[in-house]
Amino acid sequence: MFQKITLLALVLAAVSCQKKETVEKDKIKKADWLIGNWENKTPEGILSENWQKLNDSTFSASSYFIKGKDTLHFETIVLAQLGETLTYKATVKGQNEDKPVFFPSTSETEQQLIFENPKHDYPQKITYTKGVNNTLTAEISGNLNGKPSSEKFVMTKK
Questions:
Q1: 18 CA to centre of own chain
Q2: Which of 38, 101, 110, 148 is least enclosed by beta carbons within 10 angstroms?
Q3: How confident is the model at residue 105 (pLDDT cuts 50, 70, 90)?
C-alpha cells in the first residue's frame, strides 16, 4: 500500500511540474514577435536592437545607438520567464555600476509588452508595441527630475 501511495505521489508531482512548466513558457511566447534585428536611422544616428531566442523561457538582446563611428549607448537585455512573471533585465554600460535593473511585466499581449519598476530613477516604464509593416515602437517613460518624460523609438525589422 505504501509503495502505491508513493508511486501515486511521484506521478502527481511529475504531472503538476509539467503543467507549470507549460504555463511558465506561455507568457514569453507572446513576445516571439521581438525576435530579429530592428533599426531606426535618423540624422542623429542609428538605433539598433537585435533580439534572439536563447531557449523556451529566455530571450536576449543588444541595444546600441551609434553616431558616426561612436557608440553613444550600449545595453544588454534579457527577457526571461521567471515563475509566472515575464521580467525585462537591462544592463546599461556606464550606468548603475554596470549592474542590471529589473522591470517585471505588468501587461503582455500579442501586440504589446509593458514592464515597470517604479523604484528606478528613469525610466520607470518600458513599453514595446508591435506595429504594422514590420515596425516596433519602444517607449521609455516615467518621471525624470520630478517631471513626466517619455521617448519613443520606432524601429523597422531588417
A1: 24
A2: 148
A3: very high
Q: In angstroms, rounded to a whole number, what is the distance separating the alpha carbons of residues 151 and 19?
A: 39
Q: Assess whether pLDDT exceeds 80 at residue 88.
A: yes
Which pLDDT belongs to residue 110? 92
CA distances from 70 to 64, 67, 76, 151 (A): 10, 5, 17, 21
Residue 46: pLDDT over 80: yes
Query: How far apart, in whole angstroms, are the C-alpha atoms of residue 71 and residue 144?
Result: 23
Contact 146, 52 (CB under 8 A): no
How far is it, in rounded angstroms, from Cα 121 to Cα 130? Answer: 26
Task: Name residue 112's amino acid.
Answer: Q
